[in-house]
Amino acid sequence: MLIFALDRHDRALARAVAEDLDNDLSPHEDRGFEDGEDKLRPLVDPRGSDVYVLMGLHGGPDSSPHDKLCRLLFFIATLRDHGAARVTAVLPYMAFARKDRQTKAFDPVSQRYLAQLFEAVGTAQVISFEVHNMAAMQNAFRCPTQHLPVHAAFAELAVELQSAGPVVVASPDPGGIKRAQLWQEDLAQRLKRPVGLALLDKRRSEGRSDGAHAVSGELRDSVVLLVDDLIATGSTLQRAAVALRASGARRVLACAAHGLFVSPAADLLADPAIDEVLVTDSVPGFRVPEAGALRDKLRVLSCVPLLSAAVRDSHAAWIR
């Protein structure tokens, strides 16, 4: 098994995954040209190997998602050209997944195009941690995919919630209801008692959100786990938290797989309606201020066990 990490900001995450697998990161050359082009090549022979390339497709701090995608695709193609038996893309964060259907005239379906690009360079499979819409991802890709759900990374919360009183899992919009249901079912099994489910209404048009005020579900004196796939500006979760508090929630924990924290997230998430902000280390926290309300209420959990388990199981099945 060979494991590569192409971006220096992913290296700590990838190294932790490799260590969990009793492995090392494989070396590669990353040569930049004066006009901004890159050349990437493995410095070990990939011939006949089962290869895993870890790359988070988040923007920043040095490269855009488009730059990172291009580098990843070219590297996968290079590995295939030089005899790698199988190449798996491991995506702690999958960009371009938010546009998975046409909602306006002449809209792109970016996730389908992304899938076609991976397939074109010979990617054998894609392992991704919590995408925007799991069903849309599975329908977009023709190569095998593995989706790792965010609630599995938050399993340790069950211990804290044992004596917390009523617990409710909430989705900030109708599109995330399945994500909330999966966590509700998993948490009810862990707590061995009923867990509630709540839904807020949100509509988005031209990049602006409206709603998140109509709340369905019993919230009186409850601890609410408000779950989404990602936090960008934080406006969705902030509006939802205010509405949940107005509907009787005692505490609101804003939970997401990916903390992008683009401006003005630090200000919006400082809202006292949100007690804690929980994300994973799928995206490095380079946009989180060193001090302030967001830093004080932020808790980062690890997605390393999920990624390493997925790679371990995949490799075991391949060599069987």
SS class: alpha/beta
Structure annotation, total helices: 11
Q: List low-pLDDT spans.
A: none
Write down the Rg.
20 Å
Describe the 3D structure.
The protein has 320 residues and is α/β, with parallel strands linked by helices. The chain has 2 domains: 2-148, Rossmann fold; 152-302, 3-Layer(aba) Sandwich (Rossmann fold), CATH 3.40.50. The protein contains 11 helices and 14 strands. It has helices spanning 11-20, 65-81, 110-120, 134-140, 150-153, 157-161, 177-191, 235-246, 265-268, 293-297, 304-319; strands spanning 2-5, 28-32, 38-42, 50-54, 86-91, 125-129, 145-148, 167-171, 196-205, 208-216, 223-231, 251-259, 276-280, 298-301. It has a 7-stranded mixed β-sheet with strand order 10-9-8-11-12-13-14, with helices on both faces. It has a 5-stranded parallel β-sheet with strand order 1-4-5-6-7, with helices on both faces. The chain is globular, with a radius of gyration of 20 Å. The two termini are 14 Å apart.
Q: Can you give keywords for this protein?
A:
alpha/beta, 7-stranded mixed beta sheet, about 325 residues, 14 strands, 5-stranded parallel beta sheet, Rossmann fold, 2 domains
Write a compact overview of the structure shown.
The protein has 320 residues and is α/β, with parallel strands linked by helices. It contains eleven helices and 14 strands.
